């Protein structure tokens, strides 16, 4: 694996390997010295054309825990906002010696373009591109589900047989797309719920079951319910009439949450609109994985950086050996 | 006196023969002996087509000279076998006055590679609010007969009705860019499974089809003719077929790229494949080919849309719509509909020369390659194959979708008003072309 652009590019073995390496990374979190030397003398650039504090901080933390030099580059106020092109920006970063570029961009396909246009020779990690994909978010979601379901027995496992319901603005959600491909790859049964206006054309060809009414999907007793953020400006474009109606029809209200089984995970990629797509009782419940998702994001990003940047030898080491390969000792 | 002998070309509808061109006119046809001081072009094994006519070219001048000029665009046209091009109105300033269309006309005459017929804007500044001075453009030296806001749809139905009526007063035609604007807000590629997967805003087929349906009914209602630019969907074909069967005066064009390429090319986010209207599904491509073969679609038009490199070396969303197409048009048509057995070379002459000339009211193409007519012709080697590269381009921009793709056919020679503009596949120097035109005019 040279880049991480899309969860569609992963095969099952490499996806499970990533999750397993993230387990190794998670184990290092409780140690006195949490920093690993794996990416010493490597430079990781966070190239953010779009604001995203939580994703940027997560990648920064991950790279620093691996001892990489980290450059964070925000498009706002930079030469990019003065009209410099993606190509020129990429080549400038290459000239600075970037080994990996974590790119967040408002346009779908931006990471793909950086990786394949021949402008730059560095590992590209997609940190969210337009309405296309957000692969590390899907990986951290899958990691969180696996950990919560299987605990210390998680290593080497997929998500076979888990029933996962994703609710909300599927049309504009890069998180949903990445999750659909990854969760299916890992053996989960994926259900999507949204009004027809917020479902992508061609969703019938995806490896999912589509529902228009949330209660129908919740009646299936899912193992996890993932609520997506709703942007109220979608109302203006007539995707739905108003927040009140949206919340009533597709929100995880207190009443709906109360009907869920005791072990059902409640997930949200954040930031949440409490009272719109998710009630506070659901968001703050013991079933909520929202904060665990944030924590696990760092481990997943460490795993991705480690596997992409540490080199071919590291990338072919057996699952579970990441800690030793990075120089971590008990 | 200038004299040119073209020997042994395969002439459509007859045995191979020689053509003698004198002072810009075809003066003899048959088995001819070489005369003293006569220039000879050996055309054995080549197909002689009437000079190609493009109804839809973006020459960008005035205002967009970084992308193309009238000189570089017509040089590209000559390389592609064209002897006439209709230059679209979306220049800066917009071609919405007699002054601008005459400027473009003069630039074309000075370049000498092809007849440049300016297209006039339908509405002032392409703004879709007020009719442009259509009469002044029609009566100018440029004799404008095709009016289009191409790049913009004449969306207001009342304005479109008035435009159809008013343009008809001057024997003109409205060439409509059929794109319902509200249904294509932010649209980036064909709407379908792939757009959903790639996270690119979809461009639904109905956005094109709804406008075509409306406009053929308006054309019928007011008794005017309407031309539909760059059809791209099977549904559009159905509507045009229905309208023609009903007797409505509608003509339609398809681009070479919509006859060959599909939306799958968007998968790599390579902006060379971003075009308006977008590349569609394979089913659409097959329907467009069949419609060209059965006459539902009248002509092929290039929609040659040059852009500088920086307009394409960016993300898909940021990139400009459009691709260059003059140099590659004939090869793409050959691959899509000739080599597949759908069209013969006589049909190619119809869809790429006499058909567009008729729609644009361009004189001199009604009885092509006949004795006594202007010597506008193209010699093609259909057996040639090549891997397409930017070296095959003669315009100013390189945004071709065919780079590294194998294409058949080669334009060996182009003759415009008796003057060779392309010889042995190479474009003739503009000074030599200008001097030759002068000699032809002196007789």
State the helix count of chain B: 12
- CATH architecture term of the largest domain in chain A: 3-Layer(aba) Sandwich
Count of helical segments of chain A? 13
Mean pLDDT of chain A: 90
Description:
The complex is a heterodimer of chains A (330) and B (443). Helices cover 38% and strands 14% of the residues of chain A. With 330 residues, chain A is α/β, with parallel strands linked by helices. Chain A has 2 domains: 3-134 and 292-310, Aspartate/ornithine carbamoyltransferase (Rossmann fold, 3-Layer(aba) Sandwich), CATH 3.40.50; 136-290, Aspartate/ornithine carbamoyltransferase (Rossmann fold), CATH 3.40.50.1370. In chain A, helix 2 (53-65) links the parallel strand 1 (43-48) and strand 2. Chain A is globular. Chain A starts with 11 loop residues before the first helix and ends in a 5-residue tail after the last helix. With 443 residues, chain B is of the alpha/beta class. Chain B has 2 domains: 3-47 and 373-442, Urease, subunit C, domain 1, CATH 2.30.40; 51-360, Metal-dependent hydrolases (TIM Barrel). Helix content of chain B is 30%, strand content 21%. In chain B, strands 1, 2, 3, 4, 5, 16, 17, 18 and 19 form a 9-stranded mixed sheet that branches. Chain B has a 5-stranded parallel sheet with strand order 9-10-13-14-15. The longest helix of chain B has 18 residues, at 205-222. Chain A binds chain B through residues 85-87, 105-110, 112-113, 116-117, 119, 129-133, 171, 174, 177, 200-203, 205-206, and chain B through 188, 191-202, 268-270, 310, 313-318.
């Amino acid at each position: 694996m040279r880049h991480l652009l899309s969860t569609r590019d992963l095969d099952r073995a490499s996806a499970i390997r990533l999750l397993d390496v993230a387990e190794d990374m998670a184990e290092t979190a409780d140690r006195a010295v949490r920093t690993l030397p794996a990416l010493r003398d490597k430079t990781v650039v966070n190239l953010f054309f779009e604001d995203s504090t939580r994703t940027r901080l997560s990648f920064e933390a991950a790279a620093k825990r691996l001892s990489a030099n980290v450059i964070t580059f925000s498009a706002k106020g930079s030469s990019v906002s003065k009209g410099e092109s993606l190509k020129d920006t990429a080549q400038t970063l290459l000239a600075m010696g970037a080994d990996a570029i974590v790119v967040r961009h408002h346009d779908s396909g931006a990471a793909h373009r950086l990786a394949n246009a021949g402008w730059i020779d560095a590992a590209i990690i997609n940190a969210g591109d337009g309405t296309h994909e957000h692969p590390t978010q899907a990986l951290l979601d899958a990691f969180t589900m696996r950990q919560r379901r299987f605990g210390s027995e998680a290593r080497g496992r997929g998500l076979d047989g888990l029933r996962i319901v994703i609710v909300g603005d599927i049309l504009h959600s890069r998180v949903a797309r990445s999750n659909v491909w990854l969760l299916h790859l890992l053996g989960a049964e994926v259900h999507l719920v949204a009004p027809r206006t917020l479902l992508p054309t061609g969703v019938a060809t995806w490896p999912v079951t589509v529902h228009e009414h949330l209660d129908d999907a919740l009646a299936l007793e899912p193992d996890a319910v993932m609520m997506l953020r709703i942007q109220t400006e979608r109302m203006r474009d007539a995707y739905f009439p108003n927040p009140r109606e949206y919340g009533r029809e597709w929100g995880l209200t207190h009443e709906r949450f109360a009907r869920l089984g005791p072990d059902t995970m409640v997930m949200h990629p954040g930031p949440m609109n409490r009272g719109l797509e998710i009630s506070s009782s659901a968001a703050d419940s013991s079933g909520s994985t929202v904060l665990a998702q944030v924590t696990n994001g760092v481990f997943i990003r460490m795993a991705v950086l480690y596997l992409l940047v540490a080199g071919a030898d590291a990338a072919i080491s057996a699952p579970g050996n990441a800690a030793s390969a990075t120089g971590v000792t008990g | 006196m200038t004299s040119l002998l073209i020997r042994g070309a395969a002439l459509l509808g007859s045995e191979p023969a020689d053509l003698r061109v004198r002072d810009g006119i075809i003066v003899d046809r048959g088995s001819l002996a070489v005369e003293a001081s006569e220039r000879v072009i050996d055309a054995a094994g080549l197909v002689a087509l009437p000079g190609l006519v493009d109804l839809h070219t973006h020459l960008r001048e005035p205002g967009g000279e970084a992308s193309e000029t009238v000189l570089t665009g017509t040089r590209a046209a000559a390389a592609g076998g064209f002897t006439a091009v209709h230059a679209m109105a979306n220049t800066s300033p917009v071609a919405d006055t007699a002054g601008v269309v005459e400027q473009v006309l003069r630039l074309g005459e000075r370049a000498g590679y092809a007849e440049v017929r300016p297209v006039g804007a339908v509405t002032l500044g392409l703004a879709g609010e007020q009719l442009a001075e259509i009469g002044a453009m029609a009566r100018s030296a440029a004799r404008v007969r095709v009016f289009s806001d191409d790049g913009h749809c004449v969306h207001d139905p009342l304005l479109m009705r008035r435009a159809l009526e008013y343009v008809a007063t001057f024997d003109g035609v409205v060439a409509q860019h059929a794109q319902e604007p509200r249904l294509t807000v932010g649209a980036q590629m064909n709407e379908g499974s792939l757009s959903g997967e790639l996270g690119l805003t979809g461009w639904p087929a109905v956005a094109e089809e709804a406008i075509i349906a409306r406009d053929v009914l308006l054309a019928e209602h007011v008794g005017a003719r309407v031309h539909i630019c760059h059809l791209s969907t099977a549904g559009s074909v159905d509507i045009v077929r229905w309208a023609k069967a009903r007797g409505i005066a509608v003509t339609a064009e398809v681009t070479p790229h919509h006859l060959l390429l599909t939306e799958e090319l968007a998968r790599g986010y390579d902006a060379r494949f971003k075009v308006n209207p977008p590349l569609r599904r394979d089913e659409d491509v097959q329907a467009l080919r069949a419609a060209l073969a059965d006459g539902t679609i009248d002509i092929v038009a290039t929609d040659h849309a040059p852009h500088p490199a920086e307009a394409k070396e960016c993300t898909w969303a940021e990139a400009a719509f459009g691709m260059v197409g003059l140099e590659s048009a004939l090869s793409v048509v050959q691959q899509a509909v000739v080599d597949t057995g759908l069209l013969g070379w006589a049909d190619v002459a119809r869809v790429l020369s006499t058909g567009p000339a008729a729609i644009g009211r361009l004189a001199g193409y009604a009885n092509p390659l006949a004795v006594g007519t202007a010597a506008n012709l193209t010699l093609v080697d259909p057996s040639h194959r090549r891997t397409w590269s930017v070296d095959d381009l003669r315009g100013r921009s390189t945004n071709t979708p065919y780079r590294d793709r194998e294409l058949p056919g080669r334009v060996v020679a182009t003759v415009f008003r008796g003057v060779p503009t392309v010889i042995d596949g190479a474009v003739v120097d503009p000074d030599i072309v200008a001097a030759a035109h002068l000699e032809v005019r002196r007789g």
